[in-house]
Amino acid sequence: MLPAESSRVLIVDDDTETLELLREIVTKEGYQVQTAEHAQAALTKLDQEKPDVVITDIHMPGMDGITLLSEIKARSPETLVILLTAYGSLKTTVDAIKAGAFDYLSKPFIVDEIRLVVRRALEHKNVLTENESLRDQLRDRYRLDNIIGSSPGMVAVYKLIARVAQTDSTVLIQGESGTGKELVARAIHAHSARKAGPFVTVDSGALTESLLESELFGHERGAFTGAIAMKKGLLEKAHLGSCFFDEMANISQTLQSKLLRVLQEREVRRVGGGGPMTVDVRIIAATNKDLKQLVESGSFREDLYYRLNVVTITIPPLRERPEDVPLLAQFFVQKYGSNKDKRVTGVAPEAMDLLLRYPWPGNVRELEHVIERAIVLTPHPAVLPHDLPEAVRTAAEQGSVHSGWMTIDALEKDYIIRVLDAHQRDLGRASEVLGIHRKTLLRKLRRYGMT
Ligand SMILES: Nc1ncnc2c1ncn2[C@@H]1O[C@H](COP(=O)(O)OP(=O)(O)OP(=O)(O)O)[C@@H](O)[C@H]1O
Ligand SMILES: [Mg+2]
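Above: the input record for the complex with adenosine-5'-triphosphate. Below: its predicted structure, written as tokens.
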């Protein structure tokens, strides 16, 4: 919010008494106030002073307030206009809002109402300005293709993408679900010398082992029942391009060793015979699991891990870079906010506040869905708090997230889970270690919804 003294208000009324009254009230709020006694004078001041808000009477000799309003909108669309209407003249009021007035004040005035309406107008103006500056940032800085973010963590990711794109080395992208691993993989390809070649995605999580194998390596005709024609594998299709292995951690041990051979020999063989074929492919792998840990526990081959892990790009979770939230929110508002019967242009400050405090377990994907949904629901030009899902509102209200401190309850729960995990979930052992009765432990677990 801008300081009050840098907000400019212009008041227009042919009645000097009203003019003085309004000047006094608005000046007391700390704003810079200008006045004009007719519309022409107002237009001159509009050009000179660039007021944020104009308050104007409707009935004035010469140019009336409604005409002045449209004149202001034409010259300075971002200036907000508040009309002064006679009490009960609903028809003019409706016309005023239709003509683009921000709000209206009816005479006789209520002082608090004047203050409130002016303050709301200035706040609204601030949102517009802020959104404008976010839009500027989105246009050039703080993005790489479709990847948005200005946090140091994301800027580091952009640099790595740029550097690794110039090489042919294998890349491992790590990050929680919804952090944009696929976007990063596509950006590496798009900035590499292979950009004219194919970008092929292997969804390692979605297929059974044998299906995945024939998808990857292809098969000869008659290789197995149903193989009525020869089929090229994905690795072969990715020749001269990049092959993106999504959910690398899901690949079976057998396929892991076959893949290792591909990485070493740069050759593939179709299922069911045929000689080796050389493929020139850059491999980009992604995982939302800690592969190193999987290596330690024996479910992922160590040699394959080292082959993949030539360069690792780790995308930080959204909760560790809250400064990216406003930029991303604005990006998604622009993406979803302008369809034919609706125009949503920003996020109101109170709603942004909630977005900033929510921990985003589903990362950017979840934020994208929340904004998309809010835009469908909201009748307003900006997303307001009650357009956000209950979960976002309540979690943000509890708001211990960014303080860095845990509540006693959360701490206790966390500790109990760790003790249970360390003792193979044996309640008897765990309660001994914790020094509480087994029944007490059960009660706590039930309270945490964990039985
Ligand atoms: N930094 C970002 N800027 C803009 N959009 C993003 C960003 N990060 C993620 N997204 C969007 O969020 C969604 C999820 O991204 P993506 O599919 O790349 O995530 P992921 O890390 O592959 O997730 P998963 O592990 O669940 O597959 C996509 O719609 C993507 O466009
Ligand atoms: Mg993905």
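Notes for the reader.
Residues 181-182, 246 surround magnesium ion (ligand 2) (CB under 6 Å).
The longest helix spans residues 111-139.
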